[in-house]
Amino acid sequence: VLQDIVTASLIGTHNVNWTTWCVAKKFGMVGRESIYDRKTGRFIYERHQKTPVVKEALRELFHDKFDLKSTEVILNRIRNSEIQIEWVDVDKFSKLAEPLLDHTTKYYSSPASVDKAILDLVKNRLLKTKRRLICARCGKWQLAVITKEIKENLHCKYCKGRQITNTFYSDHDLVKIIQKKHNGKKLSGEENQRFKRSWKVASLIETYGKNASIVLAGHGVGADTGARILRNMTDQELMYKQIYEAERQY
């Protein structure tokens, strides 16, 4: 019964979508080089709920993240009055209780309470993330580089433009889309969306410099979320806290 309740509560969450995506890769349903997509992960979960793919994803998730046996023991001890529940009136919820009570912030810690050691881990990971820089104007110049090696003032060595966009290291399609647009060819609806998004990213990098590249290296942090983080940034510590929060929500 407990496993059924937890399974139902996991539907649509990052934990189950991500694990399903990883298992789908092992089963060959998703290409080895494919980049994680939240909607696709959820689609696979919902479409294949009664297949070995989802069963294995849930098995891994329960094994790695949920101690159902110990939880069952505690619940039984509460039922048998071996553990007493004490009611305490408080004016403010604890940092541990806040995310449990707020459905909009499910599974993430308040950024104000993030430990410095965690922030250091986040910072190191972001700075070591490999990204692909591309000139959004001509598409002729591109560079694969880790975030910490990205220079503050970027420009294209061919057209001298400062509109440099930033994407996944494994994204080889965006440069083709930009070149296609530059050559006056018509873009499809999806290509046009990607082209516009690349210019949003380029605008952030031109305005905020290297900090924009650091923010965009965050897992699930796109142009809109990145713009909000950068707009609200007062110092780097707050920036990393907000990246951490955005990743947890994603």
From TrEMBL:
Chain ranges of the Lhr-like DEAD/H associated domain: 2-97
Any Pfam family the entry gives: DEAD_assoc
Example of a GO MF term: ATP binding
Protein name as it appears in the record: Lhr-like DEAD/H associated domain-containing protein
Native species: marine metagenome
Taxonomic classification: unclassified sequences, metagenomes, ecological metagenomes
